[in-house]
Write a structure and sequence with these properties.
Blueprint lengths: L1 H23 L37 H19 L3 H4 E4 L24 E2 L33 H13 L5 H17 L14 E4 L12 H15 L12 H4 L2 H5 L3 H23 L1 E4 L11 E3 L2 H8 L8 H27 L8 H20 L16 H18 L6 H22 L22 H65 L4
Antiparallel strand pairs: 1-3, 2-3, 4-5
Helix pairs in contact: 2-12, 2-15, 6-13, 9-10, 9-11, 9-15, 11-12, 11-14, 11-15, 13-14, 14-15
C-alpha cells in the first residue's frame, strides 16, 4: 500500500514539473550553455586591444616603439638616471596651492612621505662647495657669494652691451627685464627660482614612485582641475560635464590636431603614472610603523585591470594606454631635437670621474635616439590655422596651469613625482614649440633654437620624465605576460575542477548502480 502511494506521488511530481517546463520554456536549447566554472573568470586582457597598429596622430606603430624602447632605450636610460647629476631633484614641497585650500585632504600614510637630502649629502658641485669654471649654463644652487656671479649673467650683459655701448643704465636694466620676461614667456612650466629658499633636494632613487593609497575627493579634485579646466574639450561642454562625455575618444577626434595632442599628452602622462602605481604596489605591508620603505612591493594585476579594462572605464582604458605611446614619441622627439644642446653640457657635480661617465652615457643615449627613424613631427602643429600664434599661447598657458595644480596635491610623494613629470613634459614642449628655428637637421625637421636655454632642473626633469614613460611601456609587457600566466592558470584550474566533478559524477553513478543491483538480488 505504501509502495503504491509513493508511486502516485512520483507521477504527480513528474506531471507538475513537465507543465512548469512547458509554460516557461525550460529546455536545454533555450538556456545559454553556461559552465559552472565560469564564475571564476580570469582578468580580461582587453586592456591591450588598441595597442597595435599606428599610434594616433603619429606615423609610428606600437610594435616599433615596444621593441625600440624595451631593448634599446630602457637599459641606457635606467643606468643614466642613477648618475649623481640626474638623481638629485630640487623642488618646493610647500608652495601654496593657488586654486583652493587643500589642507583638509592631507595624506597621512607613511607611503606618502618623502625623504629630503641635507646639503651635506649632495655632491660638492650641487651644494655650492665647488663652482664650475667655463661657460656652462646648467649650474644651479649657487649658495656662495662667489658663485652668485654666473657666466650666464656675464654673457647676457656682454650681449646687451654689444647692442649699444652708450645705452643708459636705466634703459639697460629695462632690456634685461624684458629679456627675462621673454625667457619666461617661452616656459611651459611654473618654475621655482634657482635660489629658492623654500626648495629642498631629494634623491629620486631613495623616493621611488609607488602606490601611496592617495585617493578620495582630494585626488579626484586634482584630476578634475587638470582635465575639465585645462584640457581642451569639444564645443558646448563646460567644467560640469562628466569627464567621460568631455573626453571620450570620439569627442577627442573631433578636435583640431593641437588640442588633440594636448589631451593625448596629458592622458598619456596620466596613464604612465597609473601604470607605476599598479606595478609598484605594497604586496606585503611593513610591520614597522612609518617605515613604508620596508614593505614588499610588486605588480598588482587586479588594480591594473580595474584602471584600464574597457568594462570598468566605459571603453576608454585601451585608448588611455595608447596615449602613453603618443607622449613617449613626443618626448623622444624633444630629446632628439635638443641633442646638439645636450651634448655641450658638462653635467657638473664636482666629481670628475662621475661627470665624465655621465657625459659618455648621455651621448650614447642621444646616439640611439637620433637613429630612431619615425620621430614625432611637431612641424604639423601650429601651422595650419590663421590664429596659430594665439593657439600656441593658449596651449602653453593651459599646460603651465597644470604645473600650478601640482602644488595642490596633498600627498608629498605624489607631489614630488607629479611636479617632476609635468615639468619634464613641459620642458619637452618648450623644446618643440619655443619659437623659430635656425636650421634644418638631418631628419629635415627643425633643430633646436640657438637661443634656447635650460636650467639643470629642467634637464633633470626632462630625462627623468622620459625615463618614467619608458619604464611604463616596459611594465606593459610585464602585465601582458602576467595576463598570459593568469589565463593558463585559470584554464588549468578549470580542467582540474571539471575532471574532479566528472570523477565525482562517475563515483555516484557507480554507487547507485551497486545499490540498484543489491536491491534486485533475490531474497533468500
Amino acid at each position: 500500500m505504501k509502495l503504491m502511494l509513493k508511486m502516485k506521488i512520483l507521477v504527480i511530481l513528474i506531471c507538475l514539473f513537465g507543465l512548469t517546463s512547458a509554460n516557461f520554456g525550460f529546455n536545454s536549447k533555450s538556456l545559454p550553455q553556461t559552465n559552472i566554472f565560469e564564475q571564476r573568470r580570469p582578468l580580461s586582457d582587453q586592456c591591450f586591444c588598441k595597442l597595435k597598429g599606428q599610434i594616433d596622430d603619429c606615423s609610428c606603430e606600437v610594435d616599433t616603439v615596444d621593441k625600440f624602447n624595451n631593448k634599446v632605450i630602457q637599459p641606457r636610460i635606467n643606468s643614466l638616471l642613477h648618475k649623481d647629476f640626474f638623481k638629485y631633484f630640487q623642488y618646493s614641497p610647500n608652495k601654496k596651492c593657488p586654486f583652493w585650500d587643500p589642507s583638509s585632504g592631507k595624506c597621512k600614510s607613511s607611503y606618502c612621505q618623502v625623504k629630503s637630502c641635507p646639503s651635506t649629502d649632495l655632491p660638492p658641485g650641487l651644494n655650492g662647495q665647488i663652482v664650475e669654471n667655463g661657460h656652462t649654463r646648467v649650474v644651479e644652487n649657487k649658495y656662495t657669494a662667489e658663485a652668485s656671479h654666473s657666466c650666464q649673467q656675464e654673457e647676457s650683459t656682454e650681449e646687451l652691451d654689444r647692442i649699444d655701448a652708450s645705452i643708459s643704465e636705466a634703459a639697460s636694466l629695462d632690456l634685461k627685464r624684458w629679456k627675462m620676461h621673454d625667457d619666461k614667456s617661452a616656459d611651459f612650466c611654473e618654475l621655482e627660482d634657482e635660489d629658492c629658499t623654500d626648495c629642498v633636494h631629494v634623491d629620486l632613487t631613495l623616493n621611488p614612485e609607488r602606490y601611496t593609497g592617495y585617493s578620495g575627493e582630494a585626488s579626484r579634485r586634482v584630476w578634475r582641475a587638470i582635465y575639465q579646466e585645462n584640457c581642451f574639450s569639444s564645443p558646448g561642454k563646460d567644467a560640469y560635464t562628466p569627464m567621460n562625455m568631455m573626453f571620450g575618444n570620439e569627442k577627442i577626434n573631433s578636435l583640431c590636431l593641437e588640442k588633440r595632442a594636448f589631451y593625448r599628452a596629458v592622458s598619456g602622462l596620466h596613464a604612465s603614472i597609473t601604470i607605476h602605481l599598479s606595478a609598484n604596489y605594497p604586496i606585503k605591508e611593513s610591520k614597522t610603523p612609518f617605515l613604508g620603505q620596508s614593505a614588499e612591493w610588486g605588480p598588482n594585476l587586479t588594480l591594473f585591470n580595474q584602471r584600464f579594462d574597457p568594462e570598468t572605464t566605459n571603453g576608454e582604458g585601451p585608448y588611455w594606454l595608447k596615449n602613453l605611446y603618443f607622449v613617449y614619441l613626443l618626448e623622444l622627439r624633444a630629446l632628439a631635437k635638443a641633442a646638439p644642446y645636450l651634448r655641450k653640457q658638462s653635467y657638473f657635480t664636482g666629481r670628475p670621474q662621475e661627470d665624465k661617465e655621465t657625459v659618455i652615457a648621455v651621448n650614447q643615449l642621444l646616439d640611439v635616439i637620433e637613429e630612431f627613424p619615425q620621430h614625432f613631427d611637431e612641424t604639423s602643429m601650429f601651422s595650419q590655422t590663421s590664429d596659430a600664434n594665439a593657439l600656441k599661447v593658449e596651449f602653453r598657458e593651459h599646460f603651465k596651469n597644470i604645473t600650478r595644480v601640482m602644488d595642490c596635491v596633498t600627498c608629498d610623494k605624489c607631489k614630488l613625482w607629479g611636479k617632476l613629470q609635468t615639468r619634464g613634459l613641459g620642458t619637452a614642449l618648450k623644446i618643440l614649440f619655443s619659437g623659430s628655428f635656425d636650421n634644418i637637421g638631418v631628419e629635415k625637421l627643425p633643430s633646436i633654437n640657438k637661443t634656447l636655454q635650460l636650467s639643470r632642473n629642467e634637464i633633470v626633469s626632462l630625462l627623468n620624465g622620459f625615463g618614467r614613460i619608458s619604464t611604463s611601456i616596459q611594465q606593459l609587457q610585464r602585465f601582458r605576460d602576467m595576463y598570459k600566466i593568469a589565463g593558463h592558470q585559470f584554464l588549468s584550474s578549470n580542467e582540474n575542477q571539471e575532471q574532479t566533478e566528472k570523477k565525482r559524477g562517475a563515483d555516484k553513478k557507480e554507487k547507485l548502480k551497486e545499490k540498484n543491483n543489491k536491491n534486485e538480488e533475490p531474497i533468500t
